[in-house]
């Protein structure tokens, strides 16, 4: 019974993760916040604001996305869409003067005002949802929209030196191979990391390390970093704008139970064998009209 509950939770998490993986893999229509034209050009002035919501809505209109709902007033149709953002993008949005001014003027003046309640925001007919980060055995992991992890130093110094070329993540309590938490789960297979002010290119990853490092990438300086420092995917986040019927997912209705035993029968494993998958909805031309992605600069606020 305990295995069944854990397997059910795993399958639900895996399907949710696969949804984001499938959507983010579609780069046919990728927008960039602010004045950015690529991930490499995103900087402090390219955070997520109400202007980015307007840009996403216009792009969905032009793609011919199927709206979540349509309102008609005086012959004018208003389309409604949704977007999902990371918690750091929510932090930046709630600091946007344009959003603050509009909410103060238009919303009810009470504790139910979105400024105080934290309820989902609607701006220009677009509902904004926040995907909260997760933790794994004491290590932050962020979300598929904004990967995070923390530095672990395998040694007595407690710091990652500027000349070190091996980067471990997670924590000392999970240092043995028998506890293989996926501390690099949401990070790309190859890419660029950011620790404090240093960017580090990498060519591979394991469940708790990054390999093939190039220290001090993109004109930054290789530096010393203390254990526990936050690591991000170059402080870049992904926002997903969507209409209706963006994808479908399915799994076998009757999964096959599988069992195995080891150590002379004293250790028993229970699992399931099933088929599952996620697929974005496409039109007759093979395009995916009902969603798009945006990249934004999403620097971690403060030192946490």
Summarize the helices and strands and which ones pair or pack.
Elements: H1 2-24, E1 30-32, H2 50-63, E2 69-73, E3 76-86, H3 87-94, H4 97-106, H5 114-117, E4 121-123, E5 126-131, E6 134-136, E7 139-142, E8 148-152, E9 159-160, E10 167-169, E11 191-195, E12 198-202, E13 204-205, E14 209-211, E15 225-226, E16 230-232, E17 236-242, E18 247-251, E19 256-262, E20 267-273, E21 276-280, E22 291-297
Parallel strand pairs: 1-22, 3-5
Antiparallel strand pairs: 2-3, 3-17, 4-5, 6-7, 8-10, 8-16, 9-15, 10-14, 11-12, 11-16, 13-14, 17-22, 18-21, 19-20
Strand content: 25-35%
- Give the oligomeric state: single chain
Tally of DSSP helical segments = 5
Are there runs of 5+ residues with pLDDT below 50, and where? Answer: none
Average pLDDT reading: 84
- The tally of strands reads 22
Shape summary: globular
- List the helices and strands in order: HEHEEHHHEEEEEEEEEEEEEEEEEEE
Largest β sheet strand count, sense and barrel closure? 7 strands, mixed
What would you report as the Rg, rounded to the nearest angstrom?
22 Å
Which secondary-structure class do the elements indicate? alpha+beta
Give the distance, in angstroms, between the N- and C-terminal Cα atoms. Answer: 38 Å
The helical percent reads 10-25%
């Amino acid at each position: 019974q305990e295995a069944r509950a854990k397997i059910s939770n795993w399958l639900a998490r895996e399907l949710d993760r696969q949804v984001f993986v499938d959507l983010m893999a579609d780069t046919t229509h990728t927008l960039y916040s602010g004045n950015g034209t690529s991930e490499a050009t995103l900087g402090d002035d390219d955070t997520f604001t109400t202007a980015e919501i307007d840009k996403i809505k216009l792009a969905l209109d032009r793609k011919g996305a199927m709206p979540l709902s349509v309102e008609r007033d005086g012959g004018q149709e208003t389309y409604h869409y949704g977007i999902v953002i990371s918690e750091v993008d929510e932090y930046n949005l709630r600091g946007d003067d344009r959003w603050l001014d509009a909410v103060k003027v238009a919303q009810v003046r009470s504790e139910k005002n979105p400024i105080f309640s934290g309820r989902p925001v609607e701006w220009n007919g677009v509902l904004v949802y926040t995907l909260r980060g997760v933790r794994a055995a004491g290590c932050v992991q962020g979300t598929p929209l904004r990967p995070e992890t923390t530095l672990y130093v395998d040694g007595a110094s407690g710091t990652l030196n500027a000349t070190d070329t091996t980067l471990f993540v997670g924590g000392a309590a999970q240092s043995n191979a028998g506890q293989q938490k996926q501390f690099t789960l949401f990070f790309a297979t190859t890419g660029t990391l950011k620790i404090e002010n240093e960017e580090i290119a990498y060519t591979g990853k394991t469940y708790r390390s990054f390999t093939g490092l190039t220290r001090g990438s993109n004109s930054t300086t290789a530096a010393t970093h203390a254990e526990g420092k936050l690591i991000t995917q170059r402080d870049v986040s992904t926002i997903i704008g969507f209409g209706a019927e963006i994808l479908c997912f399915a799994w076998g209705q009757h999964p096959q139970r599988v069992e195995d035993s080891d150590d002379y029968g004293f250790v028993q494993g229970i699992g399931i064998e099933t088929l599952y998958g996620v697929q974005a909805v496409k039109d007759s031309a093979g395009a995916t009209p009902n969603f798009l992605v945006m990249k934004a600069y999403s620097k971690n606020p403060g030192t946490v």
